[in-house]
Every structure is written in C-alpha cells, then in structure tokens.
Design brief:
alpha+beta; Membrane-bound Lytic Murein Transglycosylase D, Chain A; Endonuclease, Chain A; seven-stranded mixed sheet; 31 strands
C-alpha cells in the first residue's frame, strides 16, 4: 500500500513539473531546460502582459550641479519643474535631500513614456521542454535625437547658455552586460557558470538539466545559487518549485531592459548575506596617506563590522577622462575597497596598469642630527665642508690661536653658514656672529622635522609644513583626493618630506601628475 502511494505521488509531481516548464517562444530556438519522462501539457497557448516602466538615462553629477540646474540644462525644462523633480526623486529613491548631491554621483533622469504590450507564448507538446535561446549578440544600440536650442528667455536663473546637442539612449549588449555581472561576482569570491549543463536532482531517478549558456548560474560565497533567466521566459511555478525544494537555490527573471544595478538588486535580494546600496558619501581609506574616493553603488556583506571581506564599489564612467588612475584603484583595493568601473556603452572599463619610471626613494638617515643634516643638504645640492675648523681667536689679534670643529660649513662669498649639533659657550657664539657667520644649532634630542626646519630656514630654502591634499578634479581627473602630513620644500620641483613608507604607485602618480618628489626620513 505504501509503495503504491509513493508511486502515485511521484507521478503527480512529475506531471506538475512538466506543466510548469512547458513554454516556447519560437520553433527555431534550442533547448534551455530539459526534464525527461514528462506528460503532455493540455494547453498550447498562453498570453502574458508585460509592463515596461518609464525609461531613464544615467547622468553623472558635475561640480556645482544642483537638481534644478540639471533639470534646466539636461532635460531643457524651465516651466512646471516640480513635476519633473518629483519624477527624478522617484527614479532615485536614495536621494533623501534634493539639495544634497555630490560631484561624481550617478543619478537617473527620466526619458520616454510607459508602454504595455502582450506576448503570445506557444507551449510545445513534446516530452522535452523547449525554451528559446538568446538572440545573437548585437552591438550597443545608440538612439540619437536632436535637443532643441533653449532661447534666451527660457534660460535658467543662473543664465547658463544651452546649445544644441545630441542626447543618446544606450542599450548595453547582452554579452557585455553578462561580462560585467560575472566580473562583479568574481570580485566577491563567487562564480558564474555560463557554459555546459547544471543538474538539479528532483528524485533518485529524475533530474532537471539547465543549459548554462542560456540560463547562467551564479554561485555566491555564502553557498547561495541563483539561476539567471535572461529572457524572462519561465513562469512563477518554476521559480516557486525551485525555492520550495532547495532553500539556497533561486530563479531570478531578467528582462532585456534591466540594467546592471537592477540585475544585481535581483541577485542579492535572494540572499541574507549581501546587499547593494547607493553610496551616500565618499570612502575614506588608509592613513598614510588618506585616500577619499567616490563610487556610485556599494556591494557588501550586511554585517560589515563583523566581516573581514572587502567592499566592492561600482563607478559608472562615460569617457576616458572619467576613469580613475590605476594607482588610486590599486591603493583602494589594498585598503578593502574593490572598485569596478563600468561604461554604459562598452561594459567593463578601467585604465591599464601604469608603470612609472621612478628612481629609488631618497631616505634621510635619522641615526644622528649630524647625519640627517648632511644627507638633507646633499639632496638639496647645497655643497658644504664637513668636520671643518673655524677660527675663533687668532694670534695676531688676540695673542693666541683657537679654532672650533664644526659639523658643516657652507661658504657664501666672504660669509659662512655654520651648522653645529652641539651647544657652544655664549662668548664663542658672539664672536662667530660678529664675524658675519650664520649659525645653525640642531640636536639629537629634537625630532628630525624640527631640525629640518632649522636647517631650511638657516639656508633660506622656502618650505611649508602641514597637511597637503591632492585632488583629481584639480587635474581634470575623476573626483578623488588623498592627503598626508609632511614638509614641502620648494625648489625647481616640489619636494615632500615625510616620515612614513609612501605607497610607490601614489608616489609615481604624484611625480607624473603633480611633478612632485617624495623623500622619507
């Protein structure tokens, strides 16, 4: 009796599964899901209604932008702007305050109107379920339309001049879109399977076969598995069946018009471990130096404080000038932020590795004040005589000879600059100064920075001590900045003297972009 019951039960399950999976979009497509020993479905036609939300386009906020200025300049709307502002707010739910947006941030602007269409789906009366394959990869489609010139009367309050320009709506090719998702998942120690078959056991004798070239399989580090239905072909019964049988397996439907962020949101919605959120403020990374960098979206484990995993930041870029220097990307990665840059036209983007032709970093010895001063003057090309004797009394005038040993003597015509790393009796100091000599006293008990300031001041070398900041925006680069404390010496090139091991790639970036050298003590 029990054996008969289980036989009937398994037959019912198998029949239901086939009914759930049986659909086909065209007779020319190949198999995507295969489930064998199934019953023939009763219906041969089914209609779905697909609603498309209002279209949108990405826009990267520029320095000095405000939402109302963007509405005037980019959308060319100067009247009744409140309705447009509310629409932008609905497209960007993460913008809490319309007056607080920052340079480099990517927002969505409205474009187009909602549409509804019906799609007929044929159900194949075969024992194997046939689901359509992806269309051949097409290049990015660019739709161009002319934006009219705004007249003088229609200009915004800031009196900006708006000229005729081309507005472009870009659709990323499916292959490029998939490559971006695969790269992002790989950065999180996950994987994406895009070829071969993936098998799910239904019973001891039956299994579900998934063609990974059509339904890629994402496996996350937390053992969550997601099937990406790229053409949104499957029905809710399949989705429910998978989630009912396996708690860590999920089917996610992907529409052709889903952008990268929407797809990622769908993926991470299936897991309690990860989340993707809009970046609210710049990241502050490292300490020597401190780097601040802006990203658009952040992927991280939900409990970041208890996790040692790296955070991934996504940046949308629209040209080569928007790409971060590789030195910045690498430094961020060393301090737990992986930056992935994405072009809406081409997909994955990023600058190649930068190889800087750098000499060895000059390191000033700090074993003694005397050694430090000698190395510093040598680096600054200030010639001096070491361990020289300077006369204090002479026999012709004073009736006896007396000389003092110095650390360094630099001669300027008839005058001398004399450096001592020890104290002298006051009367000797007066005699040397009356003779027109400049005296510099340094000490082993003082910090190198203090001794350095005395030396530079004594030799009339221009310098500034403090905290120095370097901004990418100042050099027509993306928004980033880094800073550190030190001493800036002004010569034919700027020299920054620091007391820490400076990152070599940032050092190369400083030399190339700011024509600055780094010296360490």
């Amino acid at each position: 009796m029990r054996k008969t019951f289980w036989q009937v039960f398994i037959l019912c399950v198998l029949s239901s599964v086939v009914l759930f999976y049986s659909q086909a979009l065209s007779s020319e497509d190949t198999a995507q899901l295969t489930f064998r020993k199934t019953a023939i479905p009763k219906k041969n036609f089914q209609t779905y209604t697909v609603s498309e939300s209002a279209g949108s386009q990405p826009y990267q906020v520029k320095k000095g932008d405000s939402l109302i200025r963007i509405v005037h300049r980019e959308l060319h709307i100067t009247t009744n702007t409140q309705k447009t502002m509310l629409l932008i707010k609905s497209l960007n739910p993460d913008i809490q305050n319309a007056h607080k947006i920052f340079a480099g941030q990517v927002i969505r602007l409205p474009e187009g109107q909602p549409a509804v269409k019906a799609i007929g789906v044929n159900i194949a009366p075969n024992k194997e379920i046939l689901v359509s394959k992806q269309k051949p990869v097409q290049p990015a489609k660019i739709v161009e339309e002319k934006v009219p010139v705004v007249s003088h009367q229609e200009q915004s309050p800031v009196q900006e001049t708006i000229v005729s320009e081309t507005k472009r709506s870009i659709i990323l090719p499916p292959a490029a879109r998939l490559a971006v998702i695969k790269h992002i998942i790989a950065q999180m120690n996950g994987s994406m399977i895009t070829n071969g078959n993936y098998y799910l056991p239904i019973s001891r004798t039956e299994q579900l076969t998934i063609d990974c070239s059509i339904i890629p399989v994402v496996e996350l580090e937390d053992r969550t598995t997601i099937f990406l239905d790229l053409k949104n072909r499957s029905n809710n019964h399949l989705k429910n069946m998978i989630s009912d049988h396996w708690s860590n397996y999920h089917l996610v439907k992907i529409d052709d018009k889903d952008d990268i962020i929407i797809i990622l949101k769908k993926i991470f919605k299936t897991t309690n471990t990860y989340e993707i959120t809009k970046a609210q403020k710049p990241f502050s990374l490292g300490s020597l130096p401190v780097l601040e960098v802006i990203v658009d979206w952040v992927i991280a484990k939900k409990d970041v404080k208890k996790s040692s995993s790296k955070i991934q930041g996504l940046r949308f870029v629209y040209g080569n000038k928007d790409l971060l220097p590789k030195a910045i990307v690498n430094y961020a990665r060393q301090h737990s932020l992986i930056i992935t840059e994405i072009s809406p036209e081409k997909g994955l983007a990023g600058k190649p590795e930068e190889i800087y032709s750098l000499p060895s970093m000059t390191i000033l010895p700090t074993s003694s004040a005397k050694d430090f001063s000698r190395a510093l003057l040598s680096y600054l090309n200030i010639p001096g005589e070491t361990d020289a004797n300077v006369s204090v009394f002479n026999i012709a005038e004073d009736g006896f000879n007396l000389s003092i040993k110095t650390d360094i003597v630099v001669t300027h015509g008839e005058k001398k600059t004399i450096l001592f790393s020890r104290n002298l009796p006051p009367q000797f100091i007066n005699i040397l100064q009356k003779a027109g000599n400049e005296l510099i006293f340094i000490s082993d008990q003082d910090e190198p920075a203090k001794n350095m300031e005395k030396i530079l001041r004594g030799f009339n070398v221009a310098f500034t001590s403090g905290y120095f900041t370097f901004s990418g925006l100042d050099k027509n680069q993306p928004p980033y900045n880094f800073g550190f404390s030190g001493t800036k010496i002004k010569t034919d090139k700027d020299i920054y003297v620091v007391n820490f091991d400076f990152n070599q790639e940032l050092r190369g970036l400083m030399q190339k972009t700011w024509l600055a050298n780094i010296v360490r003590y």
